User: What shape does this take?
Amino acid sequence: MNAISIPLVKVAMPPREVLMPALEQVLYSGMIAEGEHVYRFEKEFAATFELPMAIGMSSGTAALHIALLLANVNAGDEVITTSMTAEPTNTVILQCGAVPVFTDVDAQTGNLSPEAVAAAVTPRTKAIAVVHYAGFPADLAALRRVADLHGIALIEDAAHALGAKHNGQPIGTIGDFGIFSLQAIKHMTTIDGGVLTMRDANYATLARKLRWFGMAKGVPRTEVDISRSGFKYNMSNVAGAMGVVQLEYIQPLIDRHIENGRFFDQEIAKIPGLDVTRTDLGSEPSYWLYSVLSEDSDDIERRLAAAGVSASKLHRPNHLHSVFEPFRRPMPNLETYYRRLTHIPCGWWVTDEDRQHIVETLRKG
Ligand SMILES: Cc1ncc(COP(=O)(O)O)c(C=O)c1O
Assistant: This one.
């Protein structure tokens, strides 16, 4: 029996002796809904990741939904998007009544191809939703040019890419709107939670109203007016307090994802028959997962499983779901990428011995 067991993803929790008193304090404070802990978390999250602002939400999905609404995506509008992602990237487009225009990816990165995006723009296009898949930044400079040329919004779904950079700029700040997910297995978690950031601070008031039924906070409830209906997308003080503690510990965790990722970049690239994700030179991935490409991904997955390493494709290209059937389009590069893809563990829990074991297992193939 194999004693080694390296999971593909893992929940990161701060030390019990630090987290539990902070949680206990907020749980029995009588103020467990949105409040000061959320606002403190927002300030500290923005400062940590060099964002112009952070608006806490109940999930990354909620943040993405609001980003689309702020980008004025309405029924019948088109949003250029990727199918190579987790489903919420695209279910929120349907929730706006809009059309997801599935656009082909770069076969090497799985990220939206700027050329394919440029070719997909029509007079009905309102936004481009770009995912930094597995933590590898998409070609944001090129996508920004396409968005500017056509006067459409660029929305960065940075759910996988907390701490990544592009040409020295923090991920999430090159698009008009950026979102992060704090769901259980991301770089950091508040159990569930999300963050919305934006370039133009003028949208912040509407974003805050939309996260809370459409109402402004701080106005007496008997006097407040809802002029546009919103959602119940706010973050709780409990999640905010957890987020504040998580932030104290996040940088070394992200650094370890990056160290492991760079190790794999070097070592796996040398293995005949295997290919690594090569992003453009200005990109600094935060390696939520590590993506290996090969001609037999099933075999890689089997061999790693036999060696106690959990590996998988993790996601299903979204257009394969029946709900997205009406929007299917040919995406030959995505097909190639997905056929060749295996994600391997790369996070903070992967030790030097673990990563050596992973590389040796791959080498033996
Ligand atoms: C690429 C991507 N976008 C959006 C989301 C949605 O985030 P959340 O689960 O926090 O709603 C996720 C996570 O599930 C994701 O992986």
